[in-house]
Design a protein that fits this description.
With 139 residues, this protein is an alpha/beta fold. It has a single domain, classed as 5'-nuclease (Rossmann fold), CATH 3.40.50. The chain is 57% helix and 10% strand. Strand 4, helix 7 and strand 5 form a beta-alpha-beta unit. The protein is globular and about 45 Å long.
Length: 139
């Protein structure tokens, strides 16, 4: 079993006082956790949009260390992931739910690699049929 960690989980780790339950969940499952180039884009986009240059520089250093820890466990968003993401957009639309582009890309990665998606926003992905874990709710 492997997990795909969404950007909101990794962003939580970059907070001055991250949620204890998220840290505990990641400590227990880190060896099975992966992330994606799409998640890197989302995290770095958030940092780049910050007005405070000192905070941007500090968080960029934190994000680099965080992503470096994943080593080879970073999945590249490729054509198969794009096709799977598009398919999941259709599945969600038929179920009456809209799936945003970034979420579709992340869902596509999880679907192609048969990974459990770890995210705070389970509602955004519930109609995809993917297995989901919310570490904020994990015991």
């Amino acid at each position: 079993m492997s997990y795909l960690v969404d950007s909101n989980v990794l962003s939580e780790l970059m907070r001055p006082a991250p949620a204890r339950q998220v840290v505990a969940w990641l400590d227990r499952h880190y060896a099975e956790c992966w992330t994606s180039t799409i998640v890197i884009l989302e995290v770095e986009r958030g940092i780049a949009r910050m007005a405070d240059e000192n905070r941007r520089v500090a968080l960029r250093a934190v994000s680099e260390r965080l992503f470096d820890r994943f080593g080879p466990r970073i999945v590249v968003f490729d054509r198969r992931c794009a096709s799977m993401g598009a398919e999941l957009v259709g599945v969600c639309r038929k179920a009456g739910r809209d799936l945003k582009l970034g979420d579709a890309a992340i869902a596509g990665v999880a679907g192609v690699y048969d990974q459990i998606l770890v995210t705070r926003n389970t509602g955004d992905f519930e109609k995809t049929g993917l297995s989901l874990v919310n570490p904020w709710d994990a015991a």
